[in-house]
Design a protein that fits this description.
Length: 188
């Protein structure tokens, strides 16, 4: 697994680097060797934020994109938090995949759809009137079924997910409803 470690408002010491390697290497055995893990460690400079030591991890795999964030007063504790969150996400994904595959009889398990989030552009604009667009994300939309899109949405922890429906080749949106079920938006 490819591990990329970045620091913002913090110096990455060798001890910190080895601790990150140790904690997140355990996840590597459950993921594909071609997976990429981006780790960002930073210190919030706002004095009103008590848990100012933050660790954010994004894991790009063949299947879902996994994200987790941990914050505490100690960077090592934040790394522990984020490693625990990622471990739970991997277990949840694996159990859903096994459960999904047990319903499909007489066929090979489906390959998870490749989703490569390219957070290529994040910029802030100053607009004096109306709502302000503060973040722009660009990503490749891969064809997948609505069920796969719902699984992807759960893995990234969002309330909606944009995808290309592999059956209709249209761009669709799946979203989480207040009752816990999912809704699907299709173009006419």
């Amino acid at each position: 697994m490819n591990l990329q470690l970045k620091g913002r408002n913090i110096t990455i010491t060798e001890a910190l680097r080895s601790y990150v390697d140790e904690k997140l290497a355990k996840l590597g055995k459950h993921l594909n060797s071609a997976s990429t893990m981006e780790v960002e460690l930073f210190c919030e400079k706002n004095p009103s934020i008590a848990d100012n030591q933050v660790a954010e991890v994004t894991v790009f795999t063949k299947g879902p994109v996994l994200r987790a964030k941990g914050a505490s007063t100690d960077m090592y504790a934040s790394i522990d938090l984020v490693a625990d969150k990622l471990s739970r996400q991997v277990k949840k994904y694996r159990s859903k995949l096994v459960s999904h595959n047990s319903h499909v009889r007489g066929s090979l398990p489906p390959e998870p759809a490749e989703v490569e989030m390219a957070l290529a552009l994040e910029e802030e604009e100053e607009i004096t009137e109306g709502p302000t667009i503060v973040k722009t994300k660009q990503f490749n939309i891969k064809p997948m079924s609505p069920e796969e899109a719902a699984l992807q949405m759960e893995m990234v922890g969002h309330d909606f997910f944009v995808f290309r429906n592999s059956e209709t080749n249209d761009t669709n949106v799946i979203y989480r409803r207040r009752d816990g079920d999912y809704g699907l938006i299709e173009p006419i």
